[in-house]
Amino acid sequence: VLSLAIDLSNPNTVYAATDNGLYRSNNLGGRWEIIFRGKNSIENQCTSVIGTSSAIFLGTKAGLFISRDNGRSWSKDDGEIDSNIILNIDFVSQKDTIIYLAAANGIFKSLDSGKNWERIFLSYSREKDETGSLDEDLDISREPSDIRFVRAGVNNINLVYFSCAKGVYKSLDQ
Predict the structure, then answer these.
(1) Which long-range contacts (CB under 8 A, 24 or more apart) does 59-64 make?
(2) What is the mean pLDDT of each successive set of 10 residues along the chain, which is 174 residues long?
C-alpha cells in the first residue's frame, strides 16, 4: 500500500492505492474491493489517492485518473499533467474544489474539482550552467522535476506547502 485516504463525503470509506490498482472499503477496512485496475502495469501502479465530495482522484505512474461516479468509471487527465508520474495529491478541506497535485513535471492546482489544472511551480533537478541559466532549448514540459510532496494548509485555504530536494517551501497565496 503506497497511499491511504478517507473519503471526505463518507468517513466509513477508505481507499488504498497499491502497485496492483486501487482498493476501496466501505466499512472502515472490514472488506475490500478493487475499483481501479489500469490497462497496463504502469497504470496499475497507484501512488496517491484522495476522495472529495465530487470525485475520486487517483495518481499513478502513468498520470492522473478521475472518477466522478464513485469509482464505476474512470477518465485519464490528458491535459498538461498528461502521463507524468503523480507523486502526491491533496485538497483544501474547507473547500474541496481546490486540489493540489505534485507530479514529475511540477505542482499543479485546480480550483474546479479537477476539471482544469494550472502548473503553479516547477523545480528542476538539473544544475544551471556557468551563466546561471538553464539550456534555452530545454523543453520545460518534459524536464523532470525534483518536487516530491504537496500539502494544502488545514486552517488557511491560501496556504500550501511542498517539498523537493532543496527543502520545504510554503506559499501564502495558493
Answers:
(1) 59/3, 59/17, 59/85, 59/86, 59/87, 59/88, 59/89, 59/101, 59/103, 60/85, 60/86, 61/85, 61/86, 62/38, 64/89, 64/101, 64/103, 64/114
(2) 90 96 96 97 96 94 96 92 92 88 91 93 59 49 66 80 82 75
